Amino acid sequence: MDCCGHAHTPAYQPAIWRMGLAPVGALLAGEVGPRGSTEAARTAETASAALDVLRKSISVDVHTHGGKSGITSKAPPSDDLANAMRAGSLAVACLADVPDSPILGRNPEGSLAVVRTPEPGQLYRHHLERLAWMDDLVASHGVRRALCTADLDAAHKAGQPAIVADVEGLDFLDGKLERLEEAHQRGIRHLQLVHYTPNDIGDFQTGAITHQGLTAFGGEVIQACHRLGFVCDVAHATEAMAKQAVKLATKPLLLSHTAVSGSRAMGPTPLTGRQISPDHARAIADTGGSVGIWHFFPSLDKYVDGLKEMAEMVGVEHVSIGTDQFDARGCVEDYTQWVHLVAAMLRGGFTAEEAGKIAGGNYMRIFRAAVG
Ligand SMILES: [Zn+2]
Ligand SMILES: [Zn+2]
Question: How far is the CA of 41 from the centre of ligand 2 (A)?
């Protein structure tokens, strides 16, 4: 099959989410309850129901860096991501390069912040270097890069893990809109407007307010995202910026990783500045969009509670999973946990249809409208 001008190679690896036996075994081995017990039988039952969800619908982590050996690590590309995705039956990872990572560090409160000034062109060079890393990952390490919805469908059918190339923060633009076209040509299909570095697009949640929301240039960037075909992600944007983006947007917006303000499921956390109000979440939902919930919860069951907190506010059509997996923190430390998370969603009371929407269907709706 051919799509977007490139040929798909047939997968030689077993199509895990079509066969499904290995993850059920893993669930039985890794979950509560000894083999043969009622608890183990129940676990096996939800495991097989979770696999059924992952077989029927395309599941997506809407914001990730690919874990410890991923794109934000110093490690060269490896098979780790593809292997974990296969083991946990995750179909698609939105894998985000972080252009401003060379200038970020931990502030005294333990949160990420800008700690040094970039040299001219440094963040653009870093971004290009990370794109080369991604090219190598796709060329030699068992994941496909999806450029359109048909690519995602084909990868899921073939049982091969796929990535949507993503960028967290447009700090590589240096005011040059034409770099968005270059990003599209390099295979990127998902862009997050702001991160931790002050830029000329808009205000971010953990920084000083300098623009009162979205700038005129930020508005042009959103229009360019729509025109070129990128998923437009307003994670990290202030509520004012997000609401101004909502007014301008003519396609569904994504807010890929956060949690409800004061989330009881998260408990005390240094991430409160990155949580969002019910109003903020509803504004995103009103575009036909979705709000991704990150994985910074003490357990998978608490993660499911975090998904419920958002679903109660905006409805299951507008909630996604955006783990923000970048190091060892979080309850989905690697993707072998993905099927366990879906099983926890079913155990926690979501129907199979609802779990399918949250685990990927809602992102697919946004991707189809934004990218085609
Ligand atoms: Zn982030
Ligand atoms: Zn991130």
Answer: 37
